[in-house]
Design goal:
Length: 121
């Protein structure tokens, strides 16, 4: 019914940058809050950033000032610009969103399959 597909992950050196994208597809009426989560090796999944439809955003303290979340409502897409990457940013990054489908107009939470970000020298 709805799919979230992440892209943009890869291998970068410390201090480098990456831009992640997550595109939602399907029969979509609207999308509420969109989030980026991450899960490193042996770690619990944690919320990295969130953004509402109007552009209000919030960030985890560990990424504040380095990461920027944004969205394009017309294209049902959310982005995560990651600058000054550190070794501890290495993780699988997951897109998450509350989506109202046009098929039943009921809100449902969806997850992408993740995109790997590896920061290494």
């Amino acid at each position: 019914q709805v799919q979230l597909v992440e892209s943009g992950g890869g291998l970068v050196q410390p201090g480098g940058s990456l831009r992640l994208s997550c595109a939602a597809s399907g029969i979509i009426f609207s999308i509420g809050i969109m989030n980026w989560y991450r899960q490193g090796p042996g770690d619990q999944r944690e919320l990295v950033a969130m953004i509402d439809r109007t552009g209000n955003a919030d960030y985890a303290d560990s990424v504040k000032g380095r990461f920027t979340i944004s969205r394009n409502n017309a294209q049902n897409t959310v982005y995560l610009q990651m600058n000054n990457l550190k070794l501890e940013d290495t993780a699988n990054y997951y897109c998450n969103a509350d989506v109202v489908s046009s098929t039943d107009y009921r809100s449902k939470n969806w997850w992408g399959q993740g995109t790997q970000v590896t920061v290494s020298s």
